[in-house]
Amino acid sequence: MAIHVRSSSGVNLYSGFEFTVGDVAARAGVADTSVYRRWGTLEALLTDVALTRLNAQSPMPDTGSLAGDLHAYAAQVAREITGPDGLAVLRLTVALSNRGERGLRARDDFLAERTRFVQAMLDRAGERGEHPPDVLGVLDHIMAPMYIRVLFGAGPLTPDYIAGLVDRLLGQA
């Protein structure tokens, strides 16, 4: 844990892989082998640090209703991708995609973990008797349009636009 905390502070995960396990170990004040023993690869460490930061900054909402959860989640995502780190998560997943088998595995683990959080939110709605969409519906109808707008400058992520994405999805559910 100390490695994680000390090494992650000041590491710009999203600018690419401009550092090595040795750099991370030196920042944490431990031997390279300690980092390898805990994470195995630089990609796994970066994925763990990114998930930890993302989960701390944007926990999955639990408002008591599917509509409330999805509206809160969509607003969080919009703040993340238009905030100071911008499209950092997207850049990390693209960078991992170009790092061979280990990078692909780390990318898939990262996306699976975030998908599990969204699925848990949807499962809670089902347990309350609501009829949630599937997780791909959330990705396709809420996440993807927001990322496309930001990536291509296709328009701002206004509160009305974000609410409309959620409302359209719920109308289809």
Entry keywords:
173 residues; mainly alpha
SSE order and pairing:
Elements: H1 2-8, H2 21-28, H3 32-39, H4 42-57, H5 66-82, H6 88-97, H7 100-127, H8 135-152, H9 159-172
Structure description:
With 173 residues, the protein is mainly alpha-helical. It contains 9 helices and no strands. It is elongated, with a radius of gyration of 18 Å. It starts with a helix and ends with a helix. The model has no long low-confidence stretch (mean pLDDT 85).
Q: How would you briefly describe this protein structure?
A:
With 173 residues, the chain is mainly alpha-helical. It has nine helices and no strands. The chain has helices spanning 2-8, 21-28, 32-39, 42-57, 66-82, 88-97, 100-127, 135-152, 159-172.
Order of helices and strands: HHHHHHHHH
Number of strands: 0
Spatial gap, N to C terminus: 41 Å
Portion of residues within helices = over 70%
State the major sheet. Answer: none
Rg, Cα atoms, Å: 18 Å
The percent range for strand residues is under 5%
Mean pLDDT value: 85
Task: Give the overall form.
Answer: elongated
Q: Output the structural class.
A: mainly alpha
Uncertain segments of ≥5 residues (pLDDT<50)? none
Our count of helices gives 9
